[in-house]
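hey can u check if this looks right to u? its 164 residues, i copy pasted from the old doc so theres a chance i mangled smth
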Amino acid sequence: MNLFIEIFGQDKNLTAAQMACRGIAVFFIALLLIRVSGRRSFGIRTPLDNIVLILLGATLSRAIVGASPFIAVVITCFAIVLLHRLLGYIISRNQKVAEMLEGNKILLFSKGQFINENVQRALLCKEDIMQGVRKSVLTDNMDKIERIYMERNGEISTIMKEKT
């Protein structure tokens, strides 16, 4: 036990070497948390996923600097990751819960016109939308565009018109 305290320190009175050892340990714990959480946390980036990322970052940092007990921080992080995994499981099987937790896509452009009410609801301006269009379909010619959506994760997605 004394060796453990010598390497990782105790409370807030940590040396640089002890903080470095804690940082290395937290790095490997974070890798394990990512594996337990699954790819969803770092791939889809819905508001729910972002909340988990923020909570994990804030909580794990407390273990590195000694602001909270190390073991308590690790247990808390595993609880957050398991809750996220449970919510992901529920969301994948229940559309109503998915809509409640993650929202719906918003139609921003259709039939050659912007839907101003939805553009305002999404807190966007037309240039924000055009940036997404240029980025995703590499054009700003709206005659080629069928529909534009703001997805649940905040990204702009574009549906091109069918070529005839």
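The chain has two domains: 2-99, 104-160.
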